[in-house]
Amino acid sequence: LGSVSVSSFMDLPPRPELFDFHGISMTHCFTDNWENIQNFQAKQDDILIATYPKAGTTWVSYMLDLLYFGQTFPERQISTSIYQTVPFLEINVPFMDSGVVLANKLDTSPRLIKTHFPVQFVPKSFWEQNCRVVYVARNAKDNVVSFFHFDRMNKVVFGSWYDHVNGWWKKKQTHSKVHYMFYEDLIEDAGQELDKLCHFLDMSPSVETKTWILDRAQFHNMKNNTMVNHSVVPVMDFEISHFMRKGKVGDWKNHFTVAQNEMFDEDYKMKMTDSTLQFRTEI
Ligand code: PPS
């Protein structure tokens, strides 16, 4: 990735078309490598970071990377981008190694692997190996705003937010190794969320280490860190929008009109009738 210059924007293919893939709207970048993805061999200690796009994937991925490797491989933090340290399993685009290739190249233990797949698309070896999964969810209003801005510079789709957050929520009820987190909780008290994460992972880092992780993973520090701020990705035009854009709860209020908000609430209520999931749209 690092070798691709921004000037190669001009050579990039047009934005991919959406199509129905097993009932989910997808683009070919995430389905072309389907067989290799489905045959991916997970290892017992792999950690899968699963999210609907724009819910806090990079934030939690980076926290996990710092937690496991921040102290032991400090050079990794300054020389290796998050695409390599936490490969995006289903990605398959011409200008870089596929997510499967990158994940298979990882020689760390554990391997940290990112996916945006709805739960039913996850390769079965992750369940067979009883891997830990960290799922991050974000309230629909802020998620859609973040998605909207990202979509102005790139395209990423993984079907309905409703199906995604509820599908993974259901999985959590039957699979003890799914840790379900909320973006809003992270914003409110990242320290507490890190403690819960450590408990789930059976880790007990020192107070100093946790303070260090929390500092490195603050929004403004990540925004200025080229290894995690996605500035090396040639398909993202930061003149249009930034990847580390605002990092807030409640930005939807700057985007939704009163009428849109009412319509949204009505539709939300209908779609979430059967769900026990509770989100906060402000804190
Ligand atoms: S992606 O493309 O799906 O992997 O994007 P993802 O990382 O899931 O989500 C990007 C949004 O997360 C915000 N973000 C953060 N917020 C607060 N603190 C920290 N440290 C942080 N890191 C990433 C990022 O700014 C995007 O949200 P918006 O609302 O667009 O700012």
From TrEMBL:
Gene3D superfamilies: P-loop containing nucleotide triphosphate hydrolases. InterPro entries: P-loop_NTPase, Sulfotransferase_dom. Residues 44-275 form the Sulfotransferase domain. Signal peptide: none annotated. It is an enzyme of class 2 (transferase). Keywords: Transferase. This is Sulfotransferase.
